[in-house]
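Try this one yourself first.
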């Protein structure tokens, strides 16, 4: 086993102790806690996540947040810490990812062979065969869309999901850290990686190992918008929440960064759709179900 303590695994967590400990258990089982440096950024958890980690995994570094870091702030804090410790590679790892024994070593090996590249995993929804949960995306005139890499392949892409990504030190030295002021939660990974690609760092998606994403839905970025239960204004309210996946500030920033003026057109189209869906949500559920079947409910999630 090759030891490489210049590789730092950065895991942002908040109030899901069981999932976080399962992630660390998987890292330990596959010798990653011994091979690399693991850093958990615990953003103000009140379920004793930090205490449990320290008790069970004393070699794992725990950085404490006050509950206001969110994803981007937590990752930025972890990267700053790792950089000061001499990190040559930063691995972003969401604790709800289920990875194979050699997943992370594949990423690091690729990074060492291609030192100016960024590589991330392709992951599928657990229990839903063939449904991509995260991975590489291609840039189209309608926005970024998932591309599917064949099993065993590593292919170039235009953007990556931030679930499992390996980033070389040179990226930080060139563009700095993710910016939580601009994109505090959703979109923090995308903005950083769009800027990295613009700065000359190619992106790749790795499908050489099988990776899964645990099922779940965030209250800040719901799916099946038309059929969502609750307040008809639910979606519209999320537009004004900076940490939401529907935040107008986040999507305006991302669209402008990626598409410039065309991004404004895409932005207006997206939020026109949200307004239309909000109006339709005042209809009875039975009518919305019929409407959804007739139109296939094309909702602007990307």
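Now uncover the answer:
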């Amino acid at each position: 086993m090759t030891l490489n303590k210049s590789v730092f695994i950065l895991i942002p967590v908040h109030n899901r102790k069981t999932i976080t400990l399962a992630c660390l258990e998987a890292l330990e089982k596959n010798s990653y806690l011994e091979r690399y440096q693991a850093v958990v950024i615990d953003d103000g958890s009140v379920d004793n996540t930090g205490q449990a980690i320290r008790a069970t995994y004393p070699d794992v570094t725990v950085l404490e947040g006050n509950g206001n870091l969110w994803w981007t702030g937590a990752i930025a804090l972890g990267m700053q810490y790792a950089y000061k410790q001499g990190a040559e590679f930063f691995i972003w790892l969401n604790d709800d990812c289920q990875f194979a024994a050699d997943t992370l070593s594949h990423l690091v090996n690729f990074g060492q062979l291609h030192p100016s590249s960024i590589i991330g995993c392709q992951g599928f929804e657990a229990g839903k065969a063939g449904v991509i949960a995260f991975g590489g995306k291609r840039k189209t005139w309608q926005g970024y869309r998932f591309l599917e890499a064949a099993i065993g392949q590593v292919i170039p892409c235009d953007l990556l999901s931030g679930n499992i990504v390996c980033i070389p030190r040179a990226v930080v030295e060139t563009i700095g850290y993710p910016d939580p002021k601009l994109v505090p939660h959703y979109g923090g990974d995308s903005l950083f990686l769009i800027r990295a690609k613009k700065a000359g760092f190619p992106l790749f998606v790795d499908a050489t190992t099988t990776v899964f994403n645990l099922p779940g839905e965030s209250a800040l970025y719901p799916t099946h918008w038309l059929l969502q239960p609750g307040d008809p204004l639910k979606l519209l309210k999320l537009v004004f929440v900076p940490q939401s996946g529907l935040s107008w500030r986040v999507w305006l920033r991302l669209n402008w960064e990626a598409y410039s003026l065309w991004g404004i057109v895409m932005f207006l189209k997206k939020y026109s759709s949200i307004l239309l869906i909000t109006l339709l949500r005042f209809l009875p559920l039975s009518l919305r179900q019929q409407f959804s079947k007739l139109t296939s409910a094309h909702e602007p999630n990307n």
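Discussion: The chain has two domains: 7-213, 225-295. The CA atoms of residues 78 and 84 lie 10 Å apart.
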